[in-house]
Each structure stands twice: as C-alpha cells, then as structure tokens.
Design a protein that fits this description.
Blueprint: H1 32-53, H2 59-77, H3 88-94
Helix pairs in contact: 1-2
C-alpha cells in the first residue's frame, strides 16, 4: 500500500473546517431580525444621501458615517436571541 504524503504539520488529514455531523441541522447565520435591522441601516444611509442632495454639510456625513461605520458592523456582529446549537430533534422537542 502506498502511504499518503503528510503535510508540513505532520497530519495526514486535510486542513480546513470540519463538517457538521449528520444529525445537526443547518442554522442560517442571518434571520428576519437581521434583515429588518439591515433595512433600517440602509434607510439611514439613504437619508444621508438625500440630505447630501439638499447640501446639508453636517447631517449628511453624520447619517452616512453612522450607517456605514456603526450600523452595518452591528448587523454583521449581532447574534440575536435565537439558539445556535443543538440538533433539529432538540429544537422539535422544545416546541409546545
């Protein structure tokens, strides 16, 4: 039998992320609350562009910077109130 070549770390396993086991359901990273918050942030950014069209030199930058530098990172980082662990069977058994 031919041996598999080992990587530089000495492991014969390929590097990369581990796959989820078969009994765990996929949980999407974004839910409805994320999309609603993203809609609010995009609205703030659009208000910044509208304020820029009316030549507001203070309101437009404040709205746009708050949307781009605060709002979008909050949407990406925020975890929300839903559980991320457990199998689909566990979630089914918790329902009334």
């Amino acid at each position: 039998m031919a041996k598999r070549p080992q990587s530089a770390s000495g492991s014969s396993r390929p590097s990369g992320r581990r796959r989820a086991t078969g009994n765990q359901a996929y949980v999407p990273p974004f839910r409805g609350a994320h999309f609603r918050l993203l809609a609010v942030v995009l609205g703030v950014i659009m208000l910044g562009f509208v304020a820029m069209a009316y030549e507001s030199i203070t309101l437009a930058p404040l709205l746009m910077v708050s949307g781009y530098c605060v709002g979008i990172p909050v949407v990406l980082i925020w975890r929300g109130k839903f559980p991320r662990t457990g199998s689909a069977g566990d979630r089914e058994s918790r329902r009334p």
